[in-house]
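Hi X.,

You mentioned you wanted examples for the new student's onboarding notes, showing what a folding record looks like when two proteins sit in one file. Here is a clean example. The first protein comes first, with its sequence line followed by its structure tokens.
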Amino acid sequence: MSRFRVIPKAETKLTREAMYALIRSPVITEKSTAASEHNQVTFRVPLTATKREVKAAVEGLFSVKVDAVNTIRVAGKAKRFRGRAGQRSDYKKAIVTLAEGAKIDVTTGI
């Protein structure tokens, strides 16, 4: 018998407006394009977004089945512009693994 209590996963309910606010934009880089061969799509999301919220938003907006969501918090770089020091904003990326046979074309609009 397990010592740990299993807590069932709660369904995340989001409005359509909240879904659009959660999925800010696709990340189109060489690395994310290579990941698309493995049924993965990368999106930029708010720093406060959770994996369950991202999963619910992607499934709701694109009508696909999501297997997994990995999130990465990217720290902003210190940059200089015309001799003045500045700081880029922090952001979060979500790498969404789609179920077999599901596909999202990020080059077209929703």
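Then the second protein repeats the pattern, sequence line and then tokens:
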Amino acid sequence: MSETQFIVYLDEAQRNRYRHWHIWRFGEITGFLIQYEAFINEQWYPVVRYDATHGQPHRDVLHPDGSQSKEMYSYYNNAEVVTIGKQDIFRNWQQYRASFEREMER
């Protein structure tokens, strides 16, 4: 079993980051969590999370009020969802942040 964990800052000011954790066992990813986190008002907020809790890979878009929107990836394995999630976060973190900040203003 191999465990990997790291953080990548997405901007020079280090106010946006990609968090990555996965477990590799017997040639496959058996558990993972990747997420986009934004530093807003002197606090880190998880904004988008991909994981495989509850036995199925999925994406959660988290909202400032504590609610979340869930999208299931039923036909993908964990490794595929890690790749999909990483690409999504690296491409779209600015839009996710803008949306989260707009929701905070309501």
